[in-house]
Amino acid sequence: MTHETSGTIFGYENLKGHHVIKYGSPFKEAVLNDILRAYAPTNRVKHKTCLVITEFIRTVFKQICAPDPSDIWNYAYRTSNISRKQDLIDLPESLTITLTDFALDALDLGHYDLQGYRLDALRNSRDSFWLSLGESDEERDKKFNILLEKKSYWSSQIGICISEAL
User: Fold this and answer.
1) N or C: lower Cβ tally within 10 Å for the chain?
2) What are phi and psi of 10, to 5 degrees?
């Protein structure tokens, strides 16, 4: 299912990779691709991508917390190392990385080559990703930099979504 708001599409159709949560106790294994395929946002959130992502992450947390979904309330994702409740456990970093990478992929920003250090290697290459960005290297450079900015923006927004989902 695809969820589009203000030009940004969060959807199953964008996924390029297979994303699995395999952290271990107290979390159970889950295939994020399957969860997104079955997910339908509520009317309350479907108008804004950040709200859709937050609600989706809550759905994931409910499914991976076994046996009691409310166990997730014992965790915090501290975006600036600050939390109102110091007694909460930090959400495992590997779990937040998996969720962030997955959400970027679902936003069509998860392509391997979409990293700043890859730009020089892509220029004048026959890479299909690079060629899909435009007719000329100038167009591709411009589109690549726009996508990098979007990826940076959404990476920070996804961190906020994870924090709010808790």
Assistant:
1) N
2) -105, 105
Sign of the C-alpha dihedral computed for residues 55, 4, 20 and 78 taken in this order: negative
Displacement of CA 157 from its chain's centroid (Å): 9
Q: How far is CA 4 from the centre of its chain?
A: 15
Per-run averaged pLDDT (10 residues), the chain, 166 residues: 58 93 85 96 87 95 84 78 72 92 95 79 82 90 91 94 91
CB atoms within 10 A of CB 36: 25
Helix axes 49-64, 93-106, angle to 10 degrees: 130
What is the pLDDT at residue 3?
Answer: 46
Contact 78, 92 (CB under 8 A): no
The letter for the amino acid at 151 is K
Residues with Cβ within 8 Å of 34's Cβ and at least 6 positions away in sequence, in order, are: none
* Domain spans in the chain, listed from the N-terminal domain onward: 2-111+156-165
